[in-house]
Design a protein that fits this description.
CATH architecture: 6 Propeller
Strand order of the largest sheet: 1-2-3-4
CATH class: Mainly Beta
Shape: globular
Helix content: under 10%
Distance between the termini: 55 Å
Largest sheet: 4 strands, antiparallel
Number of strands: 12
Number of helices: 0
Radius of gyration: 18 Å
CATH superfamily: Fucose-specific lectin
CATH topology: Neuraminidase
Length: 184
């Protein structure tokens, strides 16, 4: 049976490959980037080759770890950041080295920093959002089913990638303990 697009929609247009989970984020110029867990449970990536286009770059891998969950978001300066957990629940992230528009048309590559663990957190499930001042905040359920929250200490500085690793928050449940204060 062939899928038919509902009234007011175009498609479906099949992309090459298969996926178990997907996340999509818009780049600073509006073109979409697709992140997915591929058939080998690795983190895959593709992007529109032009804004509002129907053509996509060839699929590539951002990680060869065994991935179980993903989320993607645009940071305040326009860089995309992708979060993911591995098969042991370790939380990882990777981000673009600068806000991107369309990739180099000869290589169809976008520069990414390098995957990094995020504060040695283990998560069964997580979600990420941007707060009003632009910092990212991440909520997660730890292996003992406790709800936790961390946040960036500063708005990321486009000239200093180290600010992308300054996260704070109660990594362990704070029952009866005072929660660390936020630096505003």
């Amino acid at each position: 049976m062939t899928a038919v697009a509902p009234v007011g929609w175009f498609g479906p247009i099949p992309l090459i490959g298969s996926a178990k989970q997907i996340a999509v984020a818009a780049n600073i110029d509006g073109h979409l980037e697709l992140f997915f867990i591929d058939s080998k449970n690795h983190l895959g990536h593709s992007f529109q080759t032009q804004v509002d286009g129907i053509f996509w770059a060839p699929l590539n891998q951002l990680s060869t770890r065994t991935i179980s969950q993903i989320a993607a978001i645009q940071n305040i300066d326009g860089r995309l950041e992708v979060f993911y957990t591995d098969s042991k629940g370790n939380l990882w992230h990777n981000f673009q080295t600068k806000p991107q528009t369309i990739a180099d048309q000869t290589t169809l590559k976008l520069p990414w920093f390098a995957e990094q663990t995020l504060a040695n957190i283990k998560a069964k499930q997580f979600a990420v959002a941007q707060n009003q001042d632009g910092r990212l905040e991440l909520f997660f359920i730890d292996p003992k089913n406790n709800l936790n929250h961390i946040w960036e200490l500063t708005v990321p500085d486009t000239t200093d990638p180290s600010t992308w690793n300054s996260w704070s928050g109660p990594w362990l449940p704070s029952r009866g303990r005072r929660r660390p204060s936020r630096q505003e």
